[in-house]
Amino acid sequence: MRSTLAALSTTLVLACLGAPAVWAQSATHMMVMPDQMKWADVPSLPPGAKISVLEGPLSEAVPFTARLKFPANYQIPAHWHPVIEHVTVISGTFNIGTGDKLDASKTIALPAGSVAIMQPKTPHFVWTNDETIIQVHGVGPSGVNYVNPADDPRKK
Question: Which end of the chain is more exposed for a tag (fewer CB within 10 A), N or C?
Answer without folding.
Answer: N
